[in-house]
Amino acid sequence: MTQPTGCATSASAEPFRHGRPSHAGRVVSCLLGMLAAVHVPWSAQAADEDEQAVLALEKRCEEAREARLKPLREAEIAKCKANKRNDPDYCERFWRDYGNPVRLPNGRMSPRLLDDLPECVAAYRARRALAFK
Fold it and tell me: Among candidates 13, 25, 117, which has minimal Cα distance to 65?
């Protein structure tokens, strides 16, 4: 392990002079640097595990939403195709993203459908908790 910048390498360190820290100050900064070097990998690993747990919850949310939205999309496509004036390919293209957020004419976004499922609420709360940790 390399020594943090400013660590004393010998016992004959200069006393406090011209704005430089004393030997005791350098020793304390070295100890704090070593403590931080040991703590950072552990906290990074814990943060990575938390991120993986949140990603798993978000994946469950997307799977639950898609399972609930698929029949609704298919019903809208079938209703569109029932009208003889509509092209079947147009119906497929137009309704393929039913339930996703859409940009409104005023620039705002409409919320996505079925975002209030229990899986999605749990994923949202976990993401918020991770962001404000």
Answer: 117
Q: Which domain holds residue 68?
A: 51-131
| Range scoring the smallest mean pLDDT among 30-39, 50-59, 87-96 | 30-39
- pLDDT at residue 132, rounded to an integer: 85
How distant, in Å, are the alpha carbons of 9, 15, 72, 127 from that of 20? 15, 8, 70, 44
Q: Is residue 46, in this structure, part of any structural domain at all?
A: no
Indicate the pTM of the whole model: 0.60
pLDDT recorded at residue 128: 93
Domain count, the chain: 1
- Indicate if the alpha-carbon torsion angle 52, 57, 58, 64 is positive or negative: positive
Spell out the residues 6+ positions from residue 27 whose beta carbon is closer than 8 angstroms to its own. 8
